[in-house]
C-alpha cells in the first residue's frame, strides 16, 4: 500500500519517563522526601489487592509511618530503576535507537529538598545539567516536565500542598532556578504533567484527600481552588520563561480522556460532549484560551463553588497562554445515561465503560489508535496550536526467553498509533510536532506501582519486589524502533 501516509522527516519521535518512577536514589545527594516516595506496595498482594489498593487514598497513619521509615522494599518509587546512577548508559542506548527527543521530569526535592528553601541544592542541578548535556551529546533534544505528580512532603505537611496559594511562589522559584541553571539545555517545557488529573490523584502533592473533608462540596471546593493555584503557577512560569528564555516553547498537557457516546441516543451524545468539556477541555481552555470557559462558570455556580482569585489572576491567565498543547493518550472510553447496561473497564486515572468494538491490554485498557487521530483533529480544530503527544504506550507482561523479548504486541500498538498520527498530519493537516513513547525504558508503574507492568523498548531486569540484576536488555521493539527512526531520516 504505497499510499499509506508516512511521518514527516522533522517529526520528533522520542521517549518519556518521569523522575519519581525511574530515578530511585530517593535520599541521595541531598534530595528531600517527596509525596511519591510515600506510596506503599506489597508484592505479595494478588491482582485484586493491587487493584484495590490503587483506589485507596493515603490515610494519615500510613502517611506518617511512611515518612519515618527508610526502607525501600515496600516503596518501589524510592528504587525506580536506579536511573540516577545509570542515566549515561541509558541515554546512550535510547539515542542508539534513533530517537530524537527525551522527556523526563524534575524531582523537586532534588533541587529544593523541602520546597521552601531560598538556595537550591547544587548537586541536584548538576545532575540534571549533566543528564541533559548527555542527551544533546547523543543527538537528542530535551523535553522537561517541571512537575510530574511529586512534591516535597514538607510542602504538604507545612502548607497543605496546592490548596495553599503560597505553593505558587515555591513552584515559580523552582521554575526560575531551572531556567537560570539548565534553561540553555531544554528545548520544550511542560510546567505540569496532566493538569486535569491532579485532583484524581491524592499522592501528587495537591494533597487533597477526600476523607479529610466533611462532604463532597468541601472536597470539590478544595480541589478546584488547588487547581486554580496550578493554573496561576503555570501562567507565571510561562511569563517568566518567555522573558528569560526567548526561544523556549511552553506547553500545556492533559491526560486525554477521549469519550464517545455509547449509543446515538441524543442524551448519550450530550453526556459524552459534557464529559469531554469537564474532563479535558476545561483545562486546555484555560491554558490555551486564557480564561475559565462558560460551562465551568455555570458548573461552579450550580455546585456552589467559589474560587478565590487575586485581582490580577484573570489578566495573568489571559496574557500567558501556552505555545503548544500536548496530551497523554492510552485509550478511549464511552459514556451513557444508562450506565447499568454496561460493564466497566479500567484506565490509568479514571475507569470507563466497556466499548464492545475494542480490545484491551493486559491491564484492561481499551486499545483505540483511531481515537488518537480523532483526538488530534478535535484538539487542533479547537485551539489551532501545534500538538505533541507526550505519552502513549502499552503496559504489558513481557517474557524473557533465551535472553530475548519478543514484544510483537507492543510493536503492533505503537505502529498502529504512529500510523494514525501520520494520517492526522498528512491526510488531515494537523500540525503534530512529536511523540514521546511512555516508559521508553521499563519503569515502575505510576498507577499500580508494579515493575511487571512494562512499557519500554528497553527491558530492565527487576521484578515487583525489586529483585533482579537491573541489567538492561533490548526488546524486539527496540530493533523495530531503529528501523522506524532510520526511515524518518529519509
Ligand atoms: C500517565 C502518567 O497518566 O500514565 C504516568 O503521566 C504513568 O506517570 C502513565 O506512568 C501510565 O500509567 P501506569 O499506571 O500504567 O504507570
Molecular structure report:
This protein starts with 11 loop residues before the first strand and ends with a helix. The chain has a single domain, classed as Alpha-Beta Barrel (TIM Barrel). It has helices spanning 19-22, 47-54, 60-68, 76-79, 83-96, 108-111, 122-137, 153-159, 166-182, 216-244, 266-289, 294-302, 313-319, 369-383, 408-427, 476-488; strands spanning 12-16, 101-105, 141-147, 188-192, 249-255, 258-261, 324-328, 332-335, 344-345, 352-353, 387-391, 432-438, 458-460, 472-474. Helix content is 41%, strand content 13%. With 490 residues, the chain is α/β, with parallel strands linked by helices. It is globular, with a radius of gyration of 21 Å. Helix 5 packs parallel to helix 7. Bound molecules: 6-O-phosphono-beta-D-glucopyranose (BG6). 6-O-phosphono-beta-D-glucopyranose is lined by residues 18, 21, 193-194, 255, 328, 348-349, 391, 395, 438, 445-448, 453.
Amino acid at each position: 500500500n504505497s499510499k499509506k501516509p508516512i511521518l514527516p522527516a522533522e517529526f520528533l519521535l522520542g521517549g518519556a519517563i518521569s523522575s519519581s518512577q525511574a530515578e530511585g536514589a530517593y535520599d541521595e545527594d541531598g534530595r528531600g522526601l517527596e509525596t511519591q516516595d510515600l506510596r506503599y506496595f506489597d508484592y505479595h498482594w494478588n491482582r485484586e489487592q493491587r487493584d484495590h489498593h490503587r483506589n485507596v487514598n493515603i490515610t494519615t497513619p500510613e502517611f506518617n509511618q511512611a515518612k519515618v521509615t527508610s526502607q525501600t522494599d515496600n516503596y518501589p518509587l524510592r528504587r525506580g530503576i536506579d536511573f540516577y546512577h545509570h542515566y549515561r548508559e541509558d541515554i546512550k542506548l535510547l539515542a542508539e535507537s534513533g530517537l530524537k527527543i527525551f522527556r523526563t521530569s524534575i524531582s523537586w526535592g532534588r533541587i529544593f529538598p523541602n520546597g521552601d528553601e531560598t538556595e537550591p541544592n547544587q548537586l541536584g542541578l548538576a545532575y540534571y545539567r549533566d543528564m541533559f548535556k548527555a542527551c544533546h551529546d547523543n543527538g537528542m533534544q530535551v523535553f522537561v516536565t517541571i512537575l510530574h505528580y511529586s512534591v516535597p512532603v514538607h510542602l504538604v505537611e507545612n502548607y497543605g500542598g496546592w490548596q495553599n496559594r503560597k505553593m505558587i511562589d515555591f513552584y515559580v522559584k523552582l521554575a526560575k532556578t531551572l531556567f537560570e541553571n539548565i534553561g540553555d539545555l531544554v528545548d520544550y517545557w511542560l510546567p505540569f504533567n496532566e493538569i486535569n488529573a491532579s485532583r484524581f490523584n491524592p499522592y501528587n502533592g495537591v494533597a487533597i484527600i477526600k476523607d479529610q473533608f466533611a462532604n463532597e462540596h468541601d472536597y470539590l471546593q478544595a480541589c478546584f481552588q488547588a487547581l486554580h493555584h496550578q493554573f496561576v503557577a503555570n501562567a507565571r512560569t510561562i511569563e517568566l520563561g518567555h522573558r528569560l528564555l526567548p526561544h523556549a516553547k511552553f506547553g500545556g498537557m492533559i491526560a486525554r480522556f477521549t469519550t464517545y457516546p455509547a449509543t446515538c441516543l441524543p442524551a448519550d451524545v450530550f453526556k459524552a460532549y459534557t464529559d469531554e468539556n469537564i474532563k479535558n477541555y476545561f483545562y486546555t481552555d484555560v491554558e490555551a484560551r486564557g480564561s475559565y470557559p462558560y460551562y465551568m462558570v455555570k458548573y461552579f455556580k450550580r455546585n456552589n463553588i467559589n474560587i478565590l482569585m487575586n485581582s490580577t489572576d484573570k489578566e495573568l491567565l489571559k496574557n500567558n497562554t501556552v505555545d503548544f498543547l500536548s496530551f497523554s493518550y492510552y485509550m478511549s472510553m464511552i459514556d451513557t445515561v444508562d450506565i447499568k447496561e454496561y460493564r466497566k473497564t479500567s484506565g490509568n486515572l479514571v475507569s470507563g465503560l466497556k466499548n464492545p468494538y475494542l480490545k484491551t491490554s493486559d491491564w484492561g485498557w481499551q486499545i483505540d489508535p483511531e481515537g488518537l487521530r480523532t483526538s488530534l483533529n478535535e484538539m487542533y480544530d479547537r485551539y489551532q496550536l501545534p500538538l505533541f503527544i507526550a505519552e502513549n504506550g502499552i503496559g504489558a507482561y513481557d517474557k524473557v526467553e533465551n535472553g530475548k523479548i519478543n514484544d510483537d504486541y507492543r510493536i503492533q500498538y505503537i505502529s498502529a498509533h504512529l500510523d494514525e498520527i501520520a494520517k492526522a498530519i498528512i491526510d488531515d493537516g494537523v500540525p503534530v510536532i512529536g511523540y514521546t513513547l511512555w516508559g521508553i525504558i521499563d519503569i515502575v508503574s505510576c498507577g499500580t506501582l508494579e515493575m511487571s507492568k512494562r512499557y519500554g523498548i528497553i527491558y530492565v531486569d527487576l521484578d515487583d519486589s525489586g529483585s533482579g540484576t537491573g541489567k538492561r536488555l533490548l526488546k524486539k521493539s527496540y530493533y523495530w524502533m531503529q528501523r522506524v527512526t532510520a526511515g524518518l531520516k529519509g
